[in-house]
Amino acid sequence: MNDTISLDRRLGIIYHSAVNRSIYERSSMKGSLYLEEIVKILEAQVLLDEGWLRGKIETIYCSDLMSDILSFSDSRSLLLTGLINPQIIRTAEMVEIRVICFVHNKLPHEDTIELAKQDEIVLLSTKFSMYEACGRLYIAQRASNIT
Question: For residue 96, what are the domain limits?
Fold first, then answer.
């Protein structure tokens, strides 16, 4: 039996460890990105934005667990998630998340879009996995801190 762990598995372990560490230690990306930059970086489709959010996104979170979102999110945040049901909008509203980006080209249900419209929450969708989306945003954030 081979004792080595595959590269994908190791990256997954590192990813989950980094995500959990950033959430539970309350550390987040230092440095801000504008929504327009985020859309380009993630090659995202804008599903809903009627000019509600201008300015910088201060914090980016990724989670599919409602309890983590409720416990550790801040306002002026972007949430990367795979959840597409109306509960994600209700959860985002409670912690004042203003932007939600769905990963894996997922598209929310129509009632989810309607609820987001009522709450003035910007909705995006990206073809990337949560892992790759996080990596792209991290690299962009690091580059913006250097310049």
Answer: 29-146
